[in-house]
Predict the 3D structure of the following.
Amino acid sequence: MNQVTFPSLNDIRFASIRIKPFTHRTPILKSEAINQWAGCEIYFKCENFQKVGAFKARGAANAVMKLSDDQKEKGVATHSSGNHAAALARAAKVAGIPAYIVMPSNAPLIKKKAVKGYGGEIIECEPNLQARETTLNKVVKETGATFIPPYDHLDVIEGQATCALEFLEDQPDLEILMAPVGGGGLLGGTALLAHYWDPEIEIIAGEPSGADDAYRSFHAGKLIPQTHPNTIADGLLTSLGKLNFELIQRYVDDILLANDDQIIEAMRWIYERMKIVIEPSCAVPLAALLANKERFAGKKVGIILSGGNVDLEKLPF
């Protein structure tokens, strides 16, 4: 097996410049009430204010902008039930190229509307991984489009790493950096950037206990696929990517779990105290922190709020 060459710090800096015209530099917010409750100083990087409402805009924009002219002409394709679908559709629209998005029939309506709004062509399939992959392969064969995976892709990881780059440029004194983990693109990119920036920064992920394949893989030292996930954090249901698992093994210090009641409680605190909209997956790192307060006591903690695409008709409170 060939050794993978991950993006360098300069690669990530160039990615930040590349995507700057197409993304927001999102703000960092604090809440004194949450700090008192948590017993530490928390800085929230608000990717819920990002284009398409999630950090996924970064990786999709970077991957699309790095395509050759021949590749752009034939467009891009992916399978996604969520934020990557909208992010890739938007990136393709900005680039003036087609986007073919395979989505399971049970994908949230708000996310289907977003894809259509950005001009993406939705191809529906049965709600299982085999159907998604089979349908995607058919689309790629018919159109010649380039497959841009949601997370297990070097250009996507490089793009997601720009979030942590901005975070540490604006708040360089963080002792701990936290992100949620599903497929691992955000966590992998965050861990990689932090390793370059300051290896002393502790990288800790939050994961739902009802979808804990990253936690199990991390502790087993081998990739364990996700099976029958069951959690309100619908953005974290997927299995961990191979590239991302390699980064997690190298550079992540721990993965902490939170159950759905804890996730809902953390989500509600952010709504009530910070007055901002987040999706359940976004609340998982804070929920994991609050379930392990002693681990973070007195520390300066950065949390990436990953997205805000929630169906307001289905809020859990």
Remarks:
- The longest helix spans residues 154-170.
- The chain has two domains: 9-55+153-314, 57-147.
